[in-house]
Amino acid sequence: MVEVGGRRLRVTNLDKVLYPETGTTKGEVIAYYTRVAPRMLPLLADRPVTRKRWVEGVGTSDAPGEAFFAKQLERGAPEWVRRLPIEHSGGAKEYPIVDDLPTLVWMAQVASIELHVPQWRFGPDGERRNPDRLVLDLDPGPGADLALCAHVARLAREILGDIGLDPVPVTSGSKGIHLYARLDGKQTSDQASAIARELARAIETDHPDIATGTMSKSVRGGKVFIDWSQNNGSKTTISPYSLRGRLQPTAAAPRTWDELDDPELRHLSFDEVAARVEEGLDPFADFMPSSADTALASYRAKRDAAKTPEPVPERTSVSAAGALPRFVIQEHHASRLHFDLRIEHDGVLVSWAVPKGVPESPARNRLAVMTEPHPLEYLTFHGEIPRGEYGAGTMTIWDTGTVELEKWRDDEVIGTFTGAGPLGRARLALIRTEGSGEKSSWLLHRMKDQQQSHPAPARRAPAPADPRAADAAAEPTAVTDDDTATTDGAMRPMLAESGTPGLARALRDPWSEIKWDGIRALGTWRDGRLRLHARSGTDITARYPELTADGAPHFAAGEAIVDGEIIALDSSGRPSFGRLQRRMHLTKAREIEREVVRTPIAYHLFDLLRLDGHDLTGMPLRDRRTLLETLGESADRPVVVPPVFDDLDAAMETSRALELEGVVVKASGSRYRPGIRSGDWLKIKHTRTQEVAIAGIRPGRGNRAGTFGSLLLGVPDADGTLRYVGRVGSGFDDRMLRDLLARLEPLRTDENPLEGVPAPDARDALWVLPELVGEVEFSEWTSDGSLRHPRWRGLRPDKSVADIVVE
Questions:
Q1: Who is most buried in 67, 442, 641, 788, counting CB within 10 A?
Q2: What is the fold, at CATH topology level, of the domain defined by 133-268?
Q3: Is residue 515 among the annotated active site residues?
Q4: Structure confidence by residue, pLDDT tens digits, 235-253
């Protein structure tokens, strides 16, 4: 495992030879792409990449290696590899977008030796833009050579110069030369192809003895074929700086026109190309727009300098060398009041709209939506944007200052902001949660200032020899306190916030635990017996006699309170929430006894709250864990203390292999906060799930006649109003349908308990009191606040409607 550009990446077989003639290894290929990345990535950015892979190497002249083209991104690709779909006759294919070093290194790791791209890029909304360059592929036929290609290139340069296009030559690393000319984006791919075709015809007409634009191979002998067709929107060309899958490791190398005059002109090896990059030789430098100019294209397209007082500079400003990046937060009274957070980066202001402003404390997170980058001149802009113009309304500066950046990635930004106004000094994290580029969704989190935090002790510090020594560091928890205990005195469990891998890695000294896909249970061990309480405080002791009756596991302690998850196991020993449904509702002894055999369970422990009369909630998690492992050694199955993971990626892979929900990442120095949902614990899921209140039934038809077709669902707002979030009709088996209907019939009511139900969904609905809580999995939230593609997972009797939070 290596870290590249803030990403963890597994690399293998670095000494595997990919070019037998030269002995060039995969490790050297990865090193090459890393060396040329500063010049290559701007040329690849936002373009779909078709790869040519030689998994076993390029082979030899006597035994060539097998190669294949790959368009669709592999299933095993890292989740952080950006991808966008392109429609094909057989359906959409997701293509990788190589716009950062980790992705480029991953390409080399899987032996994607050649990277081919079209002449167009994706726009911020995933739309296909017009081409930003024109290409001519000068391919020598039999009897022609590279010198003749250079001669034809000079002829093409003269014609292109007459129409205002100044081309850059690239020796392809294979046989011929590519010519690239910059376009302004106003021409379509078809129009660019027409220009290239006419140029090829003109050269063929004037020089029929050395050049042809005809596709037929039979007429290419002794001539250079001018391939104009690669401007077609469906065609690709080897990217400049890409390696070639030839017998020797050559690369597509941008060249100067002086070099093309050299009679000894040849293709360059990858070491030579990398050395040129490191020496600063870049023939594309004047050809390519600066990254800032490219980034501001969307901003300029949305504004007319003659109609808005906003700055619309023709050329980008230059950041002061060595100075701290600047930021501005603007209060924007547009169609809706919101705040705009802008941070200086790579010559522009990367910008987010934050509807509710910067959170006041670490306990709150705020939605942030990325907008188009703005010019640096916007740091001081305030004024009235006229009606009818983009972003019309009043703009004022709320705060401005500098940022000490700790991390800047395409999905995570962390820094300490020092402002002159109401923000003051704040350590903020922006974590991308959905989408990419403009309109992507982010989470804005105010972090605890590291300078104000005490250093965490080393992980897994030894427990005190006597647990009673913990009293010196622990604050007693009153089990009858309303915030920490239920009405019958059972302690309330600590809860996790929803998070992302980026936010989890920002925790201090974190570890990861598997999220076991069961129900939460606090266990109280006293007088040789274990009592179990669900998260709601309900006593569920009788439902799990294998944990609580005679012959149940024994703890080597006089008294203890443990926290854990009860899970059901399927025939292969994997946790199954569906199977747990068979047991979690049972109350009759005979039914429970039968299911003990049919549906075995386990109690997975992850925390220890009290031990022999001593409150441990104030101790660091790492110390509680040490005591828990000692306690767990005294208990037999089905009580289990599962291992923790230092590596988040490994935990996620294990969870995915077990087909579970995800993981919970915890700050190892955190205290236990009963009844509190804390950012010290973050749950990260493979698929999104949401707890919902059942508020209505739509009658079933066909094979569901007599049960129901779907359930109408709600989620409470901050003020307790139950808001409609859609309906679910899949994920039920016959037993679930019958059982749910029996539970819902007594709750029938004539009153609609939901706000915002569309008329078609309400037309034949049968309303019920929203007392039952269930869980669904879904793909995403829609723009109108509904669940997209929900699927039923099961009832959550351990939850109440008041417990529901938006995930």
A1: 442
A2: Alpha-Beta Plaits (3.30.70)
A3: yes
A4: 999 999 999 999 999 999 9
